[in-house]
Amino acid sequence: MSVFVAAKNIISPLGFTSKANFDAICQGKSGVRLVDEKPYVEPFFGAEIDRAAIAKKNTDLGHYTFLEQLLILSVKDALSQDTSIDITSKQTAIVLSTTKGNVDILDTENIKGFASEKKYLWNTGAMLASYFKNPNQTYIISNACVSGILALNLAKRLINAGQYEQVVVVGVDILSPFIVSGFQSFKAISPGICKPYDKNRDGINLGEACATIILKKGEGDLAILGGSSTNDANHISGPSRTGEGLLLSIQKTLKSSGVSVSEIDYVSGHGTATPYNDEMESFAVSRAGLSSVPMNSLKSYFGHTLGAAGVLESVITLHSMQENTLVGTLGHKENGVSQPINIISKTESRELKTCIKLGAGFGGSNGSILFRKNG
């Protein structure tokens, strides 16, 4: 059964629609800046959404948390692109991808006016279903930084199994002192805009975003052919040194899609700009036979958006395919990984038909998903 992309959205510091975000990065704009204000104890480079702009757009949503407002705004925009989608139907499911949900209300200052249950992911899922009057229980995927890819893969399988005719997949995570201090304790945050796969890379940027992809049963311009996940259980936070888990995911995705390595036009990498992640990816990609295929990372534009990353970066991949445009990896000047991979440094035009999105996360989790442009 064919599954295609019916609508998409991104909310980030670079804009509130997917087109606005894609246009911004094609112009070399980054949402990453120095964040040096309360409630953060130490300054850091990250991508933070303008709270005032969100509040202005959602004037009737003041009784919802900031994260909930992002979810509602993103899903609303996606739904507006295809009026045939009835989110109140039993044939429509919602899949939520997030690592921390309403993490900011763990702070006693932020919880004022909100029930303590808001901190639980099930509550966020219930809020989405209630707001959009969806009769089904929301599926929640929370598996580190591969959550978004797993959510999309789950959505495709639910449609293929005949359980639903369409699935709304939405990924979200926001910045908070809890998350930022955790990565600072790892000494993993770059002192500037990050440089994925570069010789001088020195850590990640964190970001916040919300992104939505609506999948439908049937034929469309952009289809999901297949996807997979693996877990190599290498380490609680460090990736495999050989890329074994990600390699297996790539191989499984290609096999399930009926696609050969030679058909891949573009690899959307995970590219966190940490020494170990980028090195691991170089092993996985080269071992998979994809060394010469153009590859990029989007982390220097959006920061690492955690549970939103897989969905957000898939939306950008879809726009790249529609526009036949390879987006350059901001900050990349000289390859700094041991295995040969073809990192795009400058944005360029190229015919794109078949693309694979990669992801990796804490605990040895890995995932990939393959898109094809029809016609």
UniProtKB/TrEMBL annotation:
The keyword Transferase applies. One of its GO terms (cellular component) is cytosol. Keywords: Transferase. PROSITE patterns: KS3_2. One of its GO terms (biological process) is fatty acid biosynthetic process. It comes from the Bacteria. One of its GO terms (molecular function) is 3-oxoacyl-[acyl-carrier-protein] synthase activity. Residues 1-373 form the Ketosynthase family 3 (KS3) domain. It holds the Pfam family ketoacyl-synt. InterPro entries: Beta-ketoacyl_synthase, Ketoacyl_synth_C, Ketoacyl_synth_N, PKS_Beta-ketoAc_synthase_dom, Thiolase-like. Belongs to the thiolase-like superfamily. Beta-ketoacyl-ACP synthases family. This is Beta-ketoacyl synthase. It comes from Arcticibacterium luteifluviistationis. The lineage of its organism: Bacteria, Pseudomonadati, Bacteroidota, Cytophagia, Cytophagales.
